[in-house]
Write a structure and sequence with these properties.
This protein has 15 helices and 4 strands. With 330 residues, it is an all-alpha fold. It folds into 2 domains: 154 residues, no CATH class; 146 residues, no CATH class. Helix 2 packs across helix 10, helix 3 packs antiparallel against helix 4 and helix 3 packs across helix 10. The longest helix has 27 residues. The radius of gyration is 20 Å and the shape is globular.
Length: 330
């Protein structure tokens, strides 16, 4: 098989709207799952307190302990906070949109870099325009895919600096405000927090928080989540779910097909969607291990950043028409 050096272009519509209609027609009870989960706010408070407490605890510890704790504990806490930011972006905690946005800014605090407000805007576009290069910030840039290529070292660098690569994608996105009062507030809160951490706790606390953030979305089994969600690993299926044990500490974020089909259902009820409509979701390929996927992505040269569907007017290449077996991918 030749190594992929370009995106997979398609004229077909994104798969979720049609499947949502079909599932609801057969399983109208799923509508009852739509709603808010205000308990998520208490999870945010706990996780923010945990990260601040851990950063204080490791002030007088060795650098090895700082980085080890960031990889083994902090990364999971920060990843969980990112899931909460995601819940806020979809307004799944409170009925009031402003309350959701403020909760997202709060959840963002231990992650050092101001991103919750910007994430809200480009993530909603990702749902509406999946695969459209000008509107979907989840798609890598073409230069990004060429730079990383399909080799081990390139993929390691990409995972390690994944948040930085995401920033470079924002410049191509249309219809998204690059700056306003909400983003200014997000930035101000982070500057004040970082200043307090540096003055009160010192450099080790700051390094713990920064390392936790980068590990939570990068060179870590948790980083396989970004590959799991939309990278083509089986025929023309472009969205995958993960049904593994880490969903317990990741608040069911692995239920990605379910989330795209029903983005108004909060994290705690996503497994119920699959339980109500097993025929629809068991017919799709899914993952059961982020760790196996993490290793496969690093070493499999047939998987690259080009392994994505792009809906564009240029270079149209038809997708393959392969069946979707009821099997586990990893």
């Amino acid at each position: 098989m030749s190594l992929q050096k370009s995106f997979v272009y398609s004229n077909s519509p994104e798969p979720h709207r049609l499947r949502t209609k079909e599932i609801l027609k057969e399983n109208p009870a799923i509508r009852k799952l739509i709603g808010k989960n205000p308990f998520s706010f208490f999870i945010i408070l706990f996780l923010v307190a945990l990260q601040i407490g851990l950063s204080w605890f490791f002030v007088n510890q060795s650098w090895w302990m700082v980085f080890g704790a960031a990889y083994l504990i902090g990364a999971f806490a920060d990843h969980a906070l990112f899931v909460m930011v995601h819940e806020c972006a979809h307004r799944l905690i409170f009925k009031n949109p402003i309350a959701n946005r403020l909760a997202g800014i709060l959840a963002n605090i231990p992650q050092i870099f101001p991103s919750s407000v910007s994430f809200e805007r480009y993530h909603i576009k990702h749902h509406s325009f999946q695969g459209v290069m000008e509107l979907d910030g989840d798609l890598p840039n073409e230069w990004e895919a060429k730079l990383i290529d399909n080799y081990f070292i390139g993929k390691m660098i990409w995972l390690l600096f994944y948040p930085i690569f995401q920033v470079f994608r924002l410049g191509r996105l249309r219809e998204i405000k690059p700056f306003d009062g909400w983003i200014a507030l997000n930035v101000l809160v982070q500057i004040v927090f970082m200043g307090l951490v540096w003055v009160v706790l010192g450099p080790k606390a700051m390094v713990f928080l920064v390392a936790s953030f980068f590990f939570s979305v990068g060179l870590h089994p948790l980083g396989a989540r970004w590959i799991q969600e939309h990278y083509l690993l089986n025929g023309d299926q472009e969205t995958f779910s993960y049904y593994g044990p880490l969903n317990t500490v990741a608040f069911n974020v692995g239920y990605h097909n379910e989330h795209h089909d029903f983005p108004s259902v909060p994290w705690n009820k996503l497994p119920q969607i699959r339980a109500i409509a097993p025929a629809s979701y068991n017919a799709l390929v899914y993952h059961t291990s982020w760790t196996k996927l993490f290793i496969r992505f690093l070493f499999d040269k047939e998987i690259s950043l080009f392994s994505r569907v792009v809906r564009s007017n240029r270079g149209k290449v038809p997708l393959t028409d392969e069946s979707k077996p009821d099997v586990e991918l990893t």
